[in-house]
Amino acid sequence: MIEPAALQQFISHWWYAYDNALYTEWPAMFTEDAHFVCRTDTGQTDYEEFVRADVSGRDAVLAWQTAHRKGSPSPLRHNAENVHIVSAGGDEAAFRSYIWVTQIVGGTPSPLSTARVTGTVRSTDGQLAFSELVVILDTEESTVLGDRRIS
């Protein structure tokens, strides 16, 4: 059974390794059959092509992640929030969380994006790895919840 603290530690490790381009740590953090999806919630930004991904297999995921990271700002900080297990069984756990992302602009931290993050983590030989990671970047303008159509 994957414990909540181990999941939080793993996700924190991923975002730190991602932000700091610790490329040698990345392969162990994805299963061989990993699936990665990234997109915005509206699909209507000027940077859709840069953020859009739907790739399967560790090698394809790592190739996309590497190219994307090399094209992103540095320093960049992804901060995982509200990480929680949705379901767990055997050697897998599905999770949900948020991230908020900052960069440095004019010498001070500046918000860049927020996102909903979901996925599945698998334990193999005591090591956690993403078997699925889905990042949906928030781009829709906030409105009063009662006035929105929730799907």
Topology:
Blueprint: H1 4-19, E1 30-40, H2 48-51, E2 53-56, H3 58-70, E3 76-89, E4 92-105, E5 108-124, E6 127-137
Parallel strand pairs: 1-6
Antiparallel strand pairs: 1-2, 3-4, 4-5, 5-6
Concise description?
It is built from three helices and six strands, in the order αβαβαββββ. With about 150 residues, it is of the alpha+beta class.
What report would you give on this structure?
This protein is of the alpha+beta class. The chain has one domain (4-139): Nuclear Transport Factor 2, Chain: A (Roll), CATH 3.10.450. The protein has helices at 4-19, 48-51, 58-70; strands at residues 30-40, 53-56, 76-89, 92-105, 108-124, 127-137. Strands 2-1-6-5-4-3 form a six-stranded mixed β-sheet. A hairpin with a 2-residue loop joins β3 and β4. The longest helix is centred in the first third of the chain and has 16 residues, at 4-19.
Which percent band covers the strand fraction? over 45%
Overall average residue pLDDT: 96
CATH level-two architecture: Roll
Q: Tell how many strands the DSSP assignment holds.
A: 6
Strand order of the largest sheet: 2-1-6-5-4-3
Question: What does the main sheet amount to?
Answer: 6 strands, mixed
Core attributes:
single chain; about 150 residues; alpha+beta; Nuclear Transport Factor 2, Chain: A; six-stranded mixed β-sheet; 6 strands; about 20% helix; globular
